[in-house]
Amino acid sequence: MVRYSLLTNNKDLLEKFSKYSKIYGVIFLLIGLAGIVFPYIMSLTTAVIYAWFLLFSAFMIGFHTWQTNKKDWLGWLKTVIFLMVSILMIINPVTAVATLGILFAIYFFMDAFSSSALAFELKPAKMWWVSLLNGLLSLIIGIYFIIGWPISSMFLVGFLVGISLFFDGIALLTLGSAAKTLEKEV
Fold it and tell me: Whose CB among 14, 78, 83, 145 lies 3.0–4.6 Å from 183's, allowing a Cys bridge?
């Protein structure tokens, strides 16, 4: 069987990929499990980490504006907005979680619409209903965010981030095992 990936032709790379995918997979699994078990803590942690990234972005935008065009008022406005929002999120992470909840709700409503539209485009094809099911589940999650907002955000943001990290861990473990198998074949 011909393999087209650079990964499959390099035994050393396969060995490293396998090893580190398994290590990081376990870490992601554990962090994801912690988020599922303690969703409120994961929600606050997610908001604070996002706030710090936003603060870093504010400094980078400001530095870029200063270096390229000190008279660019839109660049300075963006810097100030990022700076203010990040500071507010750091000072009051509960409000940040509520904001993330609204953003997640918007995402799930958009996903519900696009998945349902795709399902009806695919309808004569096999398994079209999987896309429709995905759309319905996204709609339910979006409605759940909105009905209980802002309180539901404290649970749902952390829970969903935890689930995502948990499945990322499973994916990394699976890919690490597959790389180990390929390494033996090479």
Answer: 14
